[in-house]
Amino acid sequence: MQTELSAKSAAQVELLNRQLAAVRQQLAEISEALEIVRSENVSKDVQIENLGKELNLALANRVNQLAKYRSEFFGRLRDVLGNREDIQIVGDRFVVPSGLLFPSASDELSASGEAQLSRLASTLAELSSEIPSDIDWVLRIDGHTDKRPISTARFPSNWELSTARAIAIVKYLVAHGIPADHLSANGFGEFQPLDPADNEVAYARNRRIEIQLTNR
Fold first, then answer.
1. How far apart (Å, rounded) are the C-alpha atoms in residues 59 and 154?
2. Given strand 93-97, what is the order of strands in its sheet?
3. How far out from the chain centre does Cα 64 lie?
């Protein structure tokens, strides 16, 4: 009887050893497969990182190229519009007082405003022919008002007035040969003032049109 139990125990131990060996083999195979996947992922991560660096470098080159044309554009605008103190370059934007282009509370271009925009259109047309076709540029026209409210049938608020002025400029430029797909009209109302003060000098500074040559 004792011999019979010992034989059974030995058989069970042998079975358990075989099962344990099989489990260890499976674990080794799984570990090897995981290591292969990890190596592949590391390689892919490196490739993605390198591709990202290349894309960022290409984008930076495009931005730098456009910055060169922006600087040239602003310089030419200075020449054609005259070196006026009330026309300024603020950061990457050309800032023109609204009063040079529009009568008060209106989006109808004045005669002098049309003359100024005619010069701008000619300058932009000349420069755009020099910008490489693979640079996806756009000329942003941003309208801004002062903080004093307006409420008329045509302009219920400064949002409408600032947007309408930007659109009027874009339409004028399109009519004078500038492709519409390179133009953008935006209105900001009174919500991005250059001068937060509450006086006539601040109001005059904040009533403006900003022109920006930028990437789409």
1. 42
2. 88-90, 93-97, 208-215, 137-144, 183-187
3. 15
Any idea what DSSP says for residue 182? G
Rounded (10°) CA dihedral 64, 69, 75, 79: 180
For residue 1, give every residue at least 6 positions away whose Cβ sits within 8 Å of its Cβ, in sequence order, or none: none
d(CA 161, CA 37): 60
Q: pTM, whole model, 2 decimals?
A: 0.72
Instruction: Report the C-alpha gap between 139 and 167 in whole angstroms.
Output: 12
Architecture of domain 62-215: 2-Layer Sandwich (3.30)
The most distant pair of C-alpha atoms in the chain lies apart, rounded to whole Å, by 121
Please list the rounded mean pLDDT of every run of 10 residues in the chain (216 residues). Answer: 60 68 77 76 67 58 76 86 81 93 97 94 92 91 97 97 98 96 97 96 96 90
All structural domains of the chain with their residue ranges: 62-215
Contact of 182 with 128, CB cutoff 8 Å: yes
- What six digits make up the tokens of 143? 């309208």
Going from the C-alpha of 143 to that of each of 107, 123, 133, the distances in angstroms are 10, 21, 28
Are the C-beta atoms of 151 and 157 separated by less than 8 Å? yes
- SS3 for 90-124 is ECCEEEEEHHHCCCCCCCCCCHHHHHHHHHHHHHH
State the Cα–Cα distance between residues 65 and 193, nearest whole angstrom: 30
